[in-house]
């Protein structure tokens, strides 16, 4: 099951990373002086974005660190 999730759903890792990057960017914007009343929301977005980026990177790491997960079974 892990092999299927990691190998066949690689797009999930990439999507989580992209969502994390976008969330982190929005959190950064909320720290600009004109958005000072939104700084707490910015902190939450930093945390959520960081967690998403971590999960996305972890999935990619597992795929590359365990070669048997990225190998094709020969099934078409």
What would you note in describing this structure?
The protein has four helices and no strands. It is an all-alpha fold and about 80 residues long. The chain has one domain. Helix 2 runs antiparallel to helix 3.
Tags for this entry?
76% helix, mainly alpha, 76 residues, 4 helices, rod-shaped, 0% strand
> What's the SSE pattern?
HHHH
Number of strands: 0
Q: Low-confidence segments, ≥5 residues, pLDDT <50?
A: none
Structural class: mainly alpha
What is the overall silhouette? rod-shaped
* Number of spatially distinct domains: 1
- Give the % helix: over 70%
Beginning-to-end CA distance, first to last residue: 18 Å
Q: Radius of gyration in whole Å, from Cα?
A: 17 Å
What percent of residues are in strands? under 5%
Count of helix runs? 4
Largest sheet, in brief, is: none
Average pLDDT, rounded to a whole number, is 84
């Amino acid at each position: 099951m892990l092999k299927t999730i990691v190998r066949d759903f690689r797009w999930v890792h990439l999507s989580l990373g992209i969502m994390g990057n976008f969330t982190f960017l929005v959190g950064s914007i909320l720290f600009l002086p004109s958005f000072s009343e939104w700084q707490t929301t910015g902190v939450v977005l930093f945390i959520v974005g960081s967690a998403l980026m971590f999960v996305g990177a972890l999935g990619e790491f597992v795929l590359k660190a365990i070669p048997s997960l990225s190998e094709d079974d020969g099934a078409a």
